[in-house]
């Protein structure tokens, strides 16, 4: 199969699967029907069924992966529109995001330690709640494994958006500020995309939380590893 044909099949197939998943999610708004989850599962099943290596699939769908950067940058639009609200709540935002990052680091490390997980994997787990490129760099600098860190980032992102509606209902979080901070600080870009369902204010706050979480984690994770090793 030529590279051109592979690119077309992988790209068009991925887009069609995602469109179908979005249609299904609109009909059945159940958290486990999130398009990113169902699309991922369908693609995995197809790759296994046809015996296609993941790397060969990515050779064709690589350009879709490259769109992650522009997609994240596009989140600056609701951020700009809600700049007055963000300025008004700047202190609660900073405190909430900082606490969220600290809790994410300590709980992840604590559970892994209790389960007897090897140190290198525990270290790779620490940056799970920040966006993938930053998490990989943090894991590399801290002595972890970037590839393992990516897996934890995916789990945190998908798991966060699935559980978020239940947690918001359980602990009675109704404000856009609380939802935005929770999703941005806990589930990075995937959480920020989910926050759009709660409105423009929540999406703007989530964008801020995602960005500041990456900055805070870049400093706190290496320090945490240094003092606990």
Question: Quick summary of this structure?
Answer:
With 229 residues, the chain is mostly helical. The protein is 83% helix and 0% strand.
Supply the key terms.
229 residues; mainly alpha; 0% strand
- Taken as a percent bin, the fraction of beta residues is under 5%
Structural class given helices, strands, pairing? mainly alpha
- Shape category: globular
Cα-atom radius of gyration: 18 Å
Structure summary, number of beta strands: 0
H/E order of the elements? HHHHHHHHHHHH
Unreliable stretches covering 5 or more consecutive residues? none
How would you explain this protein's 3D organization?
It contains twelve helices and no strands. The chain has 229 residues and is mostly helical. It folds into two domains: 63 residues, no CATH class; 153 residues, no CATH class.
SSE layout and pairings?
Elements: H1 3-27, H2 35-50, H3 54-66, H4 68-74, H5 76-81, H6 83-88, H7 90-114, H8 119-125, H9 132-142, H10 146-170, H11 176-195, H12 200-228
Helix pairs in contact: 1-2, 1-3, 7-8, 7-11, 7-12, 9-10, 9-12, 10-11, 11-12
């Amino acid at each position: 199969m030529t590279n051109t044909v592979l690119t077309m099949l992988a790209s068009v197939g991925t887009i069609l699967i995602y469109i179908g998943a979005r249609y299904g999610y609109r009909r059945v708004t159940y958290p486990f029907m999130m398009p990113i989850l169902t699309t991922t599962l369908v693609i995995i099943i197809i790759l296994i069924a046809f015996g296609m290596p993941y790397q060969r699939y990515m050779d064709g769908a690589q350009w879709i992966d490259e769109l992650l950067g522009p997609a994240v940058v596009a989140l600056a639009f609701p951020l700009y529109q809600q700049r007055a609200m963000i300025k008004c709540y700047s202190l609660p935002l900073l405190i909430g995001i900082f606490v969220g990052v600290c809790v994410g680091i300590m709980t992840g490390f604590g559970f892994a330690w209790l389960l007897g997980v090897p140190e290198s994997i525990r270290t790779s787990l620490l940056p799970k709640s920040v966006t993938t490129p930053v998490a990989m760099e943090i894991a590399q600098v801290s002595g972890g494994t970037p590839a393992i860190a990516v897996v934890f980032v995916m789990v945190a992102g998908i798991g966060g958006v699935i559980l978020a509606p239940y947690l918001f209902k359980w602990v009675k979080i109704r404000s856009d500020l609380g939802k935005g901070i929770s999703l941005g600080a806990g589930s990075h870009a995937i959480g920020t995309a989910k926050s759009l369902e709660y409105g423009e204010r929540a999406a703007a706050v989530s964008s801020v939380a995602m960005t500041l979480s990456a900055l805070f984690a870049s400093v706190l994770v290496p320090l945490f590893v240094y003092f606990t090793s």
